[in-house]
Write a structure and sequence with these properties.
Blueprint (H helix, E strand, L loop, with lengths): L5 E6 L7 H15 L4 E7 L5 H13 L3 E6 L1 H8 L4 H11 L1 H12 L4 E5 L3 E3 L4 H4 L8 E5 L1 H7 L7 H9 L8 E9 H7 L2 H12 L6 H9 L4 E3 L20 E3 L14 H9 L8 H13 L9 H32 L6
Parallel strand pairs: 1-2, 1-4, 2-3, 6-8
Antiparallel strand pairs: 4-7, 5-9, 6-7
Amino acid sequence: MLDDIVNIIIAFSDPRGTYARHAAVTLASVFINTNSPVHVFLLHDETLTDENRTKLQETADLHNKEITFIDASGKLDSLAKKMAQRDYEALLGKLGRGTFYRLFAIDLIPVSRAIYLDCDILVTRDIRDLWQEDLDDKALGVVPDYHAQNLRENKGGISSRTEKLWNFLGIEPTTYFNAGVLLMNFEKIRANYNLAEQSIKFFMKYSKIITMADQDFLNFLFHNDKKILPEDFNRIRPFDTSNGVDGQIFHTASHKPYETYTRPLIDELYWHFLRQTAFCKREEELVSAMCQGLGKSYCVHLHSNACLARLMTQMKQNIFEGHYIKSMNLFLATRKEKKATI
């Protein structure tokens, strides 16, 4: 029997003070559409300001839901002691602190089951529908990522480098999942895995060839221990809104709704749910937030010649580092070993 309380995990580091608002929007979308009791476990560090923490607490109180704040930085500090300082700093530079906080949830949250959500998720259904999914004793309940969904439906392929990477890591391409929404069987994971230790070994070994950080790691580790769930639980592909937007869990990856407007109805949900948080208590605040957010977008920025030159330089660097170098590293790694193991 499942607990009546739905456990939700949100994890982030917030050095610029912006993630807290986005997390509040995601949580408000859950709270509004879920009648069951919800307990949110928010993993953070010292970058969560007192003001933002108060607003997150007020958002939970507004909807009669529960939230527990857990400082995960101590867990990261203890992990640092097991690594050389140079390796530790290089790893954080590539992955970021927030990436690890999700992996620490197993050790920091005393529950047997939880739903992890990224901070760019918008929920328009009762999240208990996901909570009640039978995992068939698997460690994770997941939804295949964009390209994997297309492969499953014979609607497209993947790049040769991506195919080689997934084959190298032992990941079946049609089951490569998106890690923005996870139904996690904590009991199974605690009994069979050590996410913190295994993640360090993985990242130290493969950071030069992977492209999706902890998502690649989770796919590598759980490639034979996951249950595929319906796409409605993590809809990331182009959205069909002809029948409205209800009954979905939308993942607004790539273009964020607070930066641009490319998905009618879907992007509007962000502003709708923002109004249901303590970050936007009055209509005037909503108008101001929209104007300031969308006004800073690169899509409306008036580019000077110097700005365009910087963009071209950045594009060349991204192509060189993100494609050429990683392809070469993958080629060398493939020659060194046929099968990746930890």
